[in-house]
Amino acid sequence: MGIKYESIETKSLARQIADNLQAAIFNGDVRADERLPSEHELAEKFEVSRPTIREALKILAARNLTRSQRGPSGGTFVKIPTQEEIKDIISITTTMLINSGELNFQSFHEARYEFETFCCRLAAERRKPIHLEEMKAELKIQKDPNTNYVEFCHSDVRFHRIIVDAADNLLIKMIIDPVFDALQPIFNMAIYRYRDHGRIFTQHKQIFDAFENHEGDKAVELITEQLDDLKEQMHKAHEWRKSQDKNLYNLTDNLF
Questions:
Q1: Residues of the chain with pLDDT under 70
Q2: Of the four, 17, 202, 230, 236, which is 20 to 30 A from 108 by CA?
Q3: Helix and strand tally (H, E) in the chain?
Q4: Which pTM does this prediction carry?
Q5: Which residue, among 162, 157, 187, has the nearest Cα to 252 in the 3D structure?
C-alpha cells in the first residue's frame, strides 16, 4: 500500500492525516473497496493516538471517501461515491456559487451551449428506441393545452435530460444533471412570462425528428436556436426585474 506514514508535527493532526489518506486514495495507492489499516496500525505508523485516528477517519467519511463495516471482516473501506451522491454534491455546490454571486447566467449559458450541442450530436448517433419513446411522452404533455406552466417546465427539463441520457456519456451526465437541478427552477421563475410554449414544443418535435433520422447537424442547429431563445428571454427578464422592486427579486440578482 502506498500510504506515506510521515510523522505529523503541526496542528490539526486529524485533518492532516485525513489529507494524507485522501491523497493515497486519489493517487490510486488505495483502491476502491480496499480496507484501510486498522486504527491501531494507523496510530503506530503516524505516531499519534487512536482518538486522533478516529477523528481522521470521521473526516474521510464526511468527505464521502470511506465506509465502515462491522464484524470480523469489517473495518474502514475506500468507497466509490454513487452517481446520486456525486449529483447532490455538484448541485449543492452550484447553488452555493449562485447565492454567493460567483456563478452568473453568462457562465451557465456558455457551458450549457457547449455541453448540449455536443450531447445532441452524440445523441442523434447513439439514441435508442427507448429514448424516442420517452421523448414522445414528453411531447404529448407539451402539446396538451391543459398542461399548466409548472407541468410544462418539468416536462421541458425531462426532455433535455433525455438528450443527455441518449448521448451515453457518464461524465457529461454527472455534470449536467445536478446543474439543471440547481439552476432550472430559478430560470423558470425568472422567464415564465416570456416563454412561448408553442415554439418550444415545435423545436422539441423537430429535435425528435432529427434524432429519429440520426441527423446530428440538424439536432445541433435546433438546440442552438432554443438556447439562443433562452438567452434572449433571460435578458428580457433582467430588464423587467430592474424596473421592479429589487427586494422582491433578489433570488435572481446573482444570475446577472
A1: 1-11, 185, 241-256
A2: 202
A3: 11, 2
A4: 0.69
A5: 187
CA–CA gap between residue 32 and residue 172 (Å, rounded): 22
pLDDT the model gives residue 248: 44
Answer whether 83's CB lies under 8 Å from 39's CB.
no
pLDDT of residue 123: 96
CA angle at 217 for the pair 119 and 152, rounded to the nearest 5°: 55
* C-beta of residue 68 within 8 angstroms of C-beta of residue 78: no
Using one digit for the tens of pLDDT, what is the confidence trace for 63-96? 888 988 887 778 899 987 777 777 777 777 877 7
Encode pLDDT of 170-207 as tens digits: 888 888 887 777 777 677 777 777 788 999 999 999 99
Across 27-172, the runs of DSSP E, i.e. the strands, are 66-69, 75-78
C-alpha cell, 59: 473526516
CA separation for the pair 31, 165 (Å, rounded): 28
User: 252 to each of 74, 149, 162, 236, 241, how far by Cα in Å?
Assistant: 48, 19, 27, 13, 9
CA distance 101 to 231: 19
Contact 36, 78 (CB under 8 A): yes
Residue closest to 120 by CA, chosen among 32, 241, 203, 9: 203
The answer to whether the CB of 236 falls within 8 A of the CB of 80 is no
- What gap in Å lies between CA 160 and CA 155, rounded to an integer? 9
